[in-house]
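Continuing from the previous page of notes. For each protein in this section, the sequence appears first, followed by its structure tokens. Read the first protein now.
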Amino acid sequence: MSEPRALSDRAEAATPPKGTLQMTLTVKLSEIVEALDSATEELAYYLDKRTGEIILVTDEDMQAAEDDELISEYPDWQRESILKAREVLRDPDHFLQLPDQFDIHEYQIMEDFCIQFEDRDIGQELHRLIKGS
């Protein structure tokens, strides 16, 4: 069985150009899974590509960060979140926004899995089964 085409395409696209510095970053998979499960229209999660930290930014925090309001007007517990939102806005190249519930298409993932088989009969049978026909 060969590697899925979409995965190999992404791997090639993720390969840094020659002569660039490549660093290893440790990211906790459990934190990414939790962020993906918790994402809503009002909550966005970002991966800090420098530290591996997952950052939660609410719509309210992002609006406050965009408005450049004085954070002293906000409660202590919210100030750190607003500062993180400002950092995301100020330095977007260091952050990767994780997909939300509208970005993840489970059925498309299953279809892609079915068509990646070298044995077309297996792929077609799996595809037939997920379609329910």
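Done with the first. The second protein uses the same format. Note its length before scrolling.
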Amino acid sequence: IAKYPIHNLTRISATRKQHSKTTNSPTVLAFGNPTPTKIDLPGAEIEAKTIVEKLSGKHLIREKATLASFKTESSGFPLVHLATHGCFQKGGCPGVGLEENTILFANRETFNIADAALLGLENTDLIVLSACQTAMKADSNGEEIAGVAYLFERAGADAVIASLWNAEDGITKDIMVKFYKNVKEGMTKVEALRQAKLGYVRENIHPFYWSPLILIGDGSAF
């Protein structure tokens, strides 16, 4: 990462033809800290608000971060940001009360990633799963997250950012805010994420804290 931007490919993103991009900053639909929840995510709430301040768009936080809004509004935004709990490990995540491959929304409603094709994401450049508990077990090889990205790509999204293990709420917030600042300045998705992490590399912060967020799919500009 100190020398090169890195992104990962699924079998869909490896063969998909890139479409022409606009030069305008993308609009974002950001969900943050849906309530009630077993584990509060105050950083996620700040994250969603700050992202919309950086870019134009709409944020839905706490009780307004509903599954119905996700289903009906996601297709209208090129960038969808989910700062909430998610579970992508086999056997589920009892600590946050989630079954395997689900994302938490307000009123304890959940969305199963297997239903992503119903969202109509053909115009979506990026789905961000900026969740504290998008967690992998210690012996995971990353196949679970690759599977999640594959389902979103099959639904039409160009790329996915997700976490390989439990991400620290505050650092995740800071990385994502820097990422969107870089996007607004015109960087490609993959370079924007790289630059957002490099400060931690220079400060010799342990990779455990800054490295779990990865980009899967099209790393080009919006």
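What the second structure shows: The two ends are 21 Å apart (CA to CA). The longest strand covers residues 28-32. We return to this in next week's lecture.
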